[in-house]
Amino acid sequence: MRNITIAIDGFSSTGKSTLAKQLAKELAYVYVDTGAMYRAVAFFAMNNNFIKTDFFDKKALIDSLPKIQLEFKYNADLGFAEMYLNGENVEKQIRTIEVSNFVSKVAEVSEVRSKLVEQQQEMGTNKAIVMDGRDIGTVVFPTAELKIFMTASAETRAQRRFDELQQKGDNVSYEDVLKNVVERDYIDTHREDSPLVIADDAIEIDNSYLNREEQFNAVLELVNEVVKTV
C-alpha cells in the first residue's frame, strides 16, 4: 500500500488538528500542525514587543526570523508532538486567545510564510504525512493525493473554541471568541500572500453537525478510496 500526502485546510476552529491527529495515528503517518508553527512565531513576536493591539513592527520580526528555531517533539504521554520554540516547550502558551488575536496578522507576512512553507515542504518529502493549516493543499503540497477543506458556521466554531478555552481555565467570553473567529476568517481569506481558498480538487466537509467520530470515519473512507487508486 503506497503512502500518500494528506492536506487538510479550512477555517479556524473547525477541528482540523483533531482530525489530522486521528488520521496520523490510524495510518501511522507523521502529523504536522502548521498552525502551531505560525502561533509560535506570533508568540515570539509578542514576547519581543513586535506586535500589540495597535502596533506591529513587521521589519523587526522579519529581521529576527533567523533567530527563530521551530521544532516538533513527540510526547509519548500525550500521543502527539508538541511545539518547541528555540528549545522551549510552548505548546500551552501558543493556544491562548491572546496569541489567537495576533496569529493571522503574523501569518500575513510573506517572509514568515516563506520560511515556514519551506520547512513544511521538507517535512513532507517522503510522504506518509498528514498536515493541516490554511494553504497546505494550495501552496505547501499542491500535488497532495488527498485534500480536505473543513468548514462550519462562525457561531459553531466560536462555541467549540470557547468551550475548549473554558476547560483549560482561561477567562474569556463567548463574544470575544466569536469576534476573534470572524476577524481571523477575514484576514485569512483576504491576505495577499496565500489566502485561504478551497483547492480545485479539495473535498469540502461542513462539520457543523458532525461529531468527531462521524467526521473521522467519513474522511478515513476517503483515504482508503484514494490509497486504492495511487
UniProtKB/TrEMBL annotation:
One of its GO terms (molecular function) is ATP binding. HAMAP family: Cytidyl_kinase_type1. This is Cytidylate kinase. Its EC number is 2.7.4.25. The keyword Iron-sulfur does not apply. It catalyses: CMP + ATP = CDP + ADP; dCMP + ATP = dCDP + ADP. Residues 6-224 form the Cytidylate kinase domain. ATP binds at residues 10-18. It comes from Flavobacterium hydrophilum. Pfam families: Cytidylate_kin. Coiled coil: none annotated. SUPFAM superfamilies: P-loop containing nucleoside triphosphate hydrolases. Keywords: ATP-binding, Cytoplasm, Kinase, Nucleotide-binding, Transferase. One of its GO terms (cellular component) is cytosol. One of its GO terms (biological process) is pyrimidine nucleotide metabolic process. Belongs to the cytidylate kinase family. Type 1 subfamily. It is found in: Cytoplasm.
